[in-house]
Structures are given as structure tokens and as C-alpha cells.
Fold:
Amino acid sequence: MNALSLLGRYFGASLRSQMQYPASAIMLTLGQLASTAIEIVSIWALFDRFGAVKGWAFGEVMFFYALIGISFAFADFLTRGFDVFGTDFVRTGAFDRLLLRPRSAALQLVGHDFRISRFGRFFQAAIILAIATGALGFVWTPQAVLLALWTIAGGVALFSALFVLQAVLAFWTVESLEAVNALTYGGVYAGQFPIALYARWFRTFLIFIVPLACVAYFPVLAILGRSDPLGAPDWFLPLAPAAGFVFLALAFLAWRFGVSKYTSTGS
Structure:
């Protein structure tokens, strides 16, 4: 059985287990949708009070919000195993069992748990994207659709990389992983706004250290047909999401190093 077929089996098993209690699964999904909808209210209140912020209209910011929300929803759906790696696998010793199986540990962690409730965030972001499209009178051309899909793919890669790095830290500590949330969930909030609004040092961090701007800011400018007020060349904007895949490759190199240093759990 190839890797995709195995992941399909994992997904089927996870879906069947959650559908044993369909009302619970539906309520969790609706809860995710409602909880993230509150974020929109706060952003709307900001723009309703002050109007455009440094030349950015509410509809444009909704584009940033929607694409980063869709990317994170897919990444969160695919990397649940890495998210709970420290507490559910390293601390309990269950990771030893994964290493004994004739499949890569990373593949097993991807298939560990597919939470359909994560699509609550996806549906909410998709609705916001439709609202932003209407507010701006934006016309989706085939080129814009392909660029949006490319942007989402890069965002999924970047956020997946952050969850992998969180799992890597668990090889040395399982007590301070909440700090990584500043990059994962905090990154979602940072990516909801154009980075041109942030301080220079923070922009540098989001471009060169954790390249969130490359999957949330630069390509959205290309989709909207805007030039970067910070001076990035126009040819770079649609290519920027590739940074997410580079970051993911580096994260898996760190993962391999962490696995090589793993010495099982203690009591």
C-alpha cells in the first residue's frame, strides 16, 4: 500500500470514529466557525471606526484574513499528530510504537487524527473571501484562482512546518511548547493584516525568519493587482509562496535530527 492509500485508510478510520457521535462532530464544527467569526467582528469594528488604515480598505484586509484562515485550517487538519506529539507520544512513550512499524513516523503522525471540526474555520474563511470579493468588486480570473490556490498551498506548507518544529522541540522538552503557539496561532493573527502596518523589525522577522509574509502578504498583493509599498519587485510577489515549501523542507530536516537524538521515554 502506498503512502496516499494508507493516509486514505487513516482518514476513513478517523471519520468513522467521529461519525459515531455525529451531533458532537457537527457542534464542534459550528463552534469553530462561531469562535473564529468573533475575530471578524473586532476587525470590522476597527475599520468602521477609523475607515481605511494607511490606505488599506476593509475588503482588502478581508482577503488577507480569508486566505490565511483557509491555509491554517488545512494545516491544522493535516498535522494534528505533530500538534499533540509532546504530550501524546513522547511523554507516554507511544512514539516507540510508531518507530517499530514499517512506515515513517512522520507519515503515521499525519494520519494520527483528522479532526473534521477544523473545517469550521475553513467555512468561515471561505465565507469571508466571498464577502471580500463582493466588497471590492473583484473578478476571479483563471490566473487569480491559480495564484490563490498556490498561495494557500504555500500557507499550508508554512503552518505545517511550524507544527513539525513544535514536535521537534518535544524531543528535549514538553513543558514549554506553548511558546510555539506565538508562531502558529499568533502567526494567523499577524497574517490577517498587511505587514506594511507593522514595525520594521517585525516585518523583517515575518519575511526572513518565519516567512509568513511570503504566503500571506506578497501573493495577495499580486492577486489584487497592487504593488508592494515596501518596495518588493512585482515579479517576486507571485513566487513568494515557494518560501513556505522551503521552510517545510528545513522543518523536516530538523525533524530527522530530532528523531536521531530520541532515546525513548522514562518513567
Q: What stands out?
A: The chain is about 70% helix and 0% strand.
